[in-house]
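step 4 of 6: structure.
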Amino acid sequence: MQKKSTEVLVIGGGVTGCGVLFDLAQRGFKATLLERGALSMGTSGRFHGLLHSGGRYAVNDPDAAHECIVENQILRKVMPHCIEDTGGMFVSTPDDPPEFADEFYQACHKVSIPATEISIEEMLRREPLLNPKIRRVFTVPDASVETWDACRSLVVSAAEHGAETLEFHEVTELLKEGNKVVGAVAINKVTGETVTITADLIVSAVGAWGGRLAAMADCDVTVHAGKGTMIAMNYRMVNTVVNRCVHPSGSDGDIIVPIGTVAVIGTTSVRVDDPDNYPIEEWEVKLMMEEGEKMVPSFRKFRALRAWAGVRPLYQEKGAASDLRAVTRKYALLDHSPRDGVDNFVTITGGKWTTYRMMAEDTVDLVCKKLDTTRACRTAETTLHNPHGESKYHTLGSRLQKLETGEFDGQLICECEIVTRNQIEANLATNDRHIINDLRRDLRVGMGPCQGGFCTYRVAGLMHKNKQLTTQQTNKALVDFLQERWKGMNTVLWGQHLRQMQLDEGIYMGVLGLDKLPPGLSGIDEKRVAEVETEGYYEVS
Amino acid sequence: MSLYDTVVIGAGLAGLTTACHLQNKGQRVMLIGHGVGALVLGSGCIDVLGYQPVESVEPVRAWPDKLSSFMADHPQHPYSLLGETKINEALHAFQGLTETEYQQNGSENWLVPSAVGAIHPTCLAPPSIAKGHLGDTASMLIVGFEELRDFYPALISQNISAQNLGIETESLTLNLPEPGASKLNITPIELATLFEQADFRQQLVSVIKARCQDYDRIGFPAVLGLGRHAKVVVDLEKQLGRPVFEVGTLPPSVPGRRLFEALKHTFVQAKGRMNIGTKVVAGEVKDGRVTQVQIETTNRLKPIIAENYVLATGGILGGGIQTDDQGRVWEPVFNLPIDHNSNRQTWFTPKFLSPVGQPVSSYGVVVNDRLNPIEDTRPIADNLYIVGSLLAHADWTQGRTGYGVALTTAKHVADLLG
């Protein structure tokens, strides 16, 4: 058993946990982060990719709206390489209540969101595929944000201040001495090794899983899991974030976010009991396609690439009513010492991706208070380290330009997303895991229309060669990645995408015979296959 | 009088073979293909029955011995409809159809390596592929190229070794000589044209020769020439002094392309009419007979009239069956009935590499024993015939029967009409 000690232990590698880690490290704390999977693998990796302007909450939750616009402006400065300034529009379609438009406009201005009304002509000039029957349009400073780059940037920047990040480490136990939490036991899911980490303070930043973790410290915390389902369409039918101008409660499938090479539509809101098990239902897919048509009439003509779902953490105060819609989207910071009589333990949950930095700042302020020190937060002024060393890495246009101007001289391995062999080999050299999904998150391998049809074999061949893997490890990486792609596809397979899947089947079964390698060599893990997962465009195992 | 005896729609293996058989029998045949068909996506080998029980991972060796149990398990499969004799006749007829040689391993399958080194059981293979037979314990060196991203020799050789077949296997990855060296993203088809150049081969041989002395045979990616393939192989074998074989790559498949070209050549030599790049958009059925099909031209729909019509447009992959988000499944030319469940959740299994197949892949047109499409038990049109993957209950993943079905149904229609 490995033993470590740190000052502050952060549990959860979503954007909140990564944000807390960076803030702690920058304020001089010795900090360690544990994440059970890869960074951004939970809710942070399963959202639209929307950096809110706050417009969506302006009418019904002005405080949350104000937080969004303030943080929106800050994040543009501190993580410019993760953000595409798409701008946003709120559109009032013939299906939407006309009176809401004025209410929306006024509410935005009350919380300093610079909403501007433009003409329908101007809207169509900017976004020709939008519904010409839309009656009113307001522009707002929405943007799209690349979550993996953001989380990676945060931990890389934190590491520069000495912080440590342990991915694929699942916490199995919180260590207590009397009323104090003094550390955690985690299992390394790659090696199977157990690690014990002692700390002066533990921060729980595990979102919808917050109740489970708090229970390990004998604290009673209720965090509901609110499932939201999204679909990635294989075309940026809009280059601006488009929101329906409607009251957000009771409205589903009303946002389209252009991000990377795709446009993402979402979302639904369904309470689920288990944050690890929430299948996508057919009605959700149907609803997205129908709602999409209201904004972009040709919506159905584009190919639905992948569906996935995430679980919003919805914190419920002790003794509060259990209506999900009434649960605030504002975040909750819990000091378990006064609340539950458990010392050295703090929970941060709820909130939105957009406000992660503010949540981290509040959390670390509380940490300072509890550790009896005063250290100023500087995360609003510090530009994060860019792990790719270049801006606009995640847009296809920048890669295409490099390809066409000869700047990319390597072999093209993933043609859909324009990823070269040089990039893959450089990435393999920095990573000791044998998971093709890691390359997907870092480089976007396998995320295009063929969903890994050609590049999975190529990447596996390169991994085998460069990392001297056994064939069994290689076969397993290959099969696992194909299976993960399948999980996000089979809810949206019809038309051309179904043809594509049959081509992929032809390649891996017909041409390669991967399914007929002897058991033990093939890497097909029946248990993994049997797990009901809702892995999407963004996610893994 | 019609201009044509038979119109064949679809240029995959089923359509081309039907067209060749009929034209050879003296019919006036028109072949219309929307694209070049799916042959370039396959291995170029003719799989008849590779696994039985179908979910087994143990390849079938003597496939005729397993046919009856396969048919018993799959009573609606086209094999069960047409019987073993027809399958054998179809294989025999295919072997004489083109100038390209296809070999049978007696009554056993060839067991050839795939591009991951898995065993691919297949009935008929070009000699260049058959020489990689894993039932033969002659040692092998698998050669690949840094520039070819669609073939990884070390993975192939190590997976073969890991299966303990008693074959000593090693790999060698080389850089291509000029003019291949600068082509980072070379496709198998492009590389095949380079192999047709004598000086290119000469340069390669000079590198490989010294390193292949310990091996009985040498495996290359399946890029050993297109039209001059046979000469390329003879030359390499002569220069290297040992048998040379091919292992499939990711698509496009060079052996598949050779087969497409060979069938096309046979058909055109026999004076068949061929129209590739044209879409048949509709067909008309009156009083139980097809009266015409219509093709897309620049400014109008043009009727094509024949005595008989063969629909070989493929399954979902080929475009012969279409689907949408509402769970609709249809055949786009004649709107033939396709029995299906409109709840899309029933179309798939949770597993991508599914041993029992995706249910949607069995969707297709139901036919009688003359391969006429039927509604209930009544033929919809008695001069319309369905061949290949458009047929219902013919998911090729189940037993690896796809090309066997294509050849057998093509032969059956040729016998009925010729």
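step 5 of 6: annotate
 - The first strand of chain A starts at residue 2 and ends at 11.
 - Chain A is about 35% helix and 25% strand.
step 6 of 6: archive
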